[in-house]
Amino acid sequence: MTDDDERFLRRAIELAAKARAGGNPPFGSLLVGPDGTVLAEAGNTSLTDDDITAHPELKMARWAARELDQDTAARTTMYTSCQPCGMCAGAIERSGLGRVVFALSSEQLNALKPAGSGFPRVPAEGPALWEEARVPVEGYYQ
Ligand SMILES: [Zn+2]
């Protein structure tokens, strides 16, 4: 962790405070390009947008995938006020971003929440219907 990393993390924490002040959950993220330029910033807007996916990390991953070429994305760092959740971690993997630096870990975040809060696991069943389900997929990945 460099001084620059800490400086950009402090900006992510500012964005988290700004999100909270605006009536949203307290999380913020930014992208810093290969030359140290801030490329984009976002705060959580899941309450004001009424959108459960409006996490700043997901917004930044989508922005990176849309706006950056592969090489630039791979040399871009996401700074975020908290360790990305599972939804955002999946999007970050698909975005091509090269690095994530976070302030609070998920464990530290959970320690700040009331006991018993969080999301219940949803039962998932499968696999099933292999012979039918594989048809639209076969040959797609070359
Ligand atoms: Zn998330």
From TrEMBL:
Gene3D superfamilies referenced in this protein's UniProt entry, alphabetically: Cytidine Deaminase, domain 2
Pfam families: dCMP_cyt_deam_1
Cross-referenced InterPro entries: CMP_dCMP_dom, Cytidine_deaminase-like
Domain CMP/dCMP-type deaminase, residue spans: 3-120
Full protein name: Nucleoside deaminase
Organism: Nonomuraea composti
